[in-house]
Amino acid sequence: MEGGQVDEPEPSAREVDVEVSIVDHENRDMVRTCPRSLRGAFRGLAWRATVIDNLSRDGSLDMLATDFPDVAVIANSVRLGFGANHNQVVRRLVADRSARYLLVLNDDTELEAEAVTRMVRTADRQADLGAVVPTVVDGQGRPAPTRLAYPSARSWLRTDRFDVNEPPDPKGGWLQGSCLLLRVEALREVGGFDERFFLFYEDVDLSARLVQASWGLGTCPEARVVHHGHATVLRPGIAHLTPRQGLRSRYLYFCKHVGPRQAALLSAAGRSVMLARAAKAALTGARTRRPADRERARRLLGLARFDPRKPLAQEAEARAACGDGGSSGPRNGPW
C-alpha cells in the first residue's frame, strides 16, 4: 500500500469498497485472464473477489487455487443460472453489509486500468444511482451499447434473435450485465437477481426494479472494459441451448412486467412469425441449395415449435438437485 492506495484484495473479515462476483462456466482460459485484469482496476479502493465455479470439469478450480490464492472460490455442486450464481454473493453482502458495492463481472471480460475506481467515483458522486456501467468494447476495440431500450411487443415480433435485441437508449434504457456495478444499499431494498431467469433478461429485470424503486441507472464513459461477447454462452456444449433459453427468459420477463395473458398472446404471435420465416428460409434453401440457408430454416422451425412456458432441462435439473429451498439453489422468491 502506497499513499493510502489499496491495490491488493482485502480479506473477507473487513468491510471493503467493492466485492467482485465472477462466475466460471467451465471457461478456464478466460477465467485466468479476467482476474488478472482486476488489480490495476481498483486503484485507491479496498476490494475482494469471489469466483463461483459452476461445476467446471476443465481444471478451473486447480488453476484458481494455484494462480489466484487471494480470490475466494465457491464451488457449486450443481450447475446454476446466472442470477442464482451471483445471488450467492448478493445474499451475503445484503446480510452482513461487508461491501458498499458489488461488481458483477462476466468471465469473458477484461477490465482496463482504474475502470472500477472511475465507476465507484461516479456512483459516489450521485447517491441516487443504484447501478453503473462502463464503456464496453469488443476484442477489436469497437464500442458496444451498454444501455438498451426495454423490450416491447414490437421488438418481440420483429426479431428472430435468441437474446435481447433492442436499440440503444443511452438515457432511459436498462443496463447490460457483463460489467455492472451495483450499490449494495439498493440491493437491500429491491433484492438481487430474479432466479427464474436462468440466463438472459435478469439484468433487464433488475434494471426495471431499480427504476421502479426510484434508483437511478448511470454510465461511466471514462471507465472501459473489454467484453469478448458471448465467449461463454456460445462455447461448445451449451451453444445449442442458448436460443431457446433466450426465448424462455423473454417470455418470463413479459409475464412478470406485462402480464401472463399478454405474454402468452405475444408468444403465440412470435412463434407464428418464426414459422413464416422458417418457411421462407426453406424456400430459399431449396432454391440455392446452400447448407447455410437450409440450416437457418431448420433452426427457425425448431424455435417456432419451442414452447417457452416449459422450463428447459438445465433449469429443471438445477431445481431438482437443489430444491427451491436449497441454500445454494435457485429460488422463486420476491426477487
TrEMBL record:
<comment type="pathway">
    <text>Cell wall biogenesis; cell wall polysaccharide biosynthesis.</text>
</comment>
<dbReference type="GO" id="GO:0016757">
    <property type="term" value="F:glycosyltransferase activity"/>
</dbReference>
<protein>
    <recommendedName>
        <fullName>Glycosyltransferase 2-like domain-containing protein</fullName>
    </recommendedName>
</protein>
<dbReference type="Pfam" id="PF00535">
    <property type="entry name" value="Glycos_transf_2"/>
</dbReference>
<keyword id="KW-0328">Glycosyltransferase</keyword>
<dbReference type="InterPro" id="IPR029044">
    <property type="entry name" value="Nucleotide-diphossugar_trans"/>
</dbReference>
<keyword id="KW-0808">Transferase</keyword>
<feature type="domain" description="Glycosyltransferase 2-like">
    <location>
        <begin position="28"/>
        <end position="190"/>
    </location>
</feature>
<dbReference type="InterPro" id="IPR001173">
    <property type="entry name" value="Glyco_trans_2-like"/>
</dbReference>
<feature type="compositionally biased region" description="Basic and acidic residues">
    <location>
        <begin position="306"/>
        <end position="318"/>
    </location>
</feature>
<comment type="similarity">
    <text>Belongs to the glycosyltransferase 2 family.</text>
</comment>
<feature type="region of interest" description="Disordered">
    <location>
        <begin position="306"/>
        <end position="335"/>
    </location>
</feature>
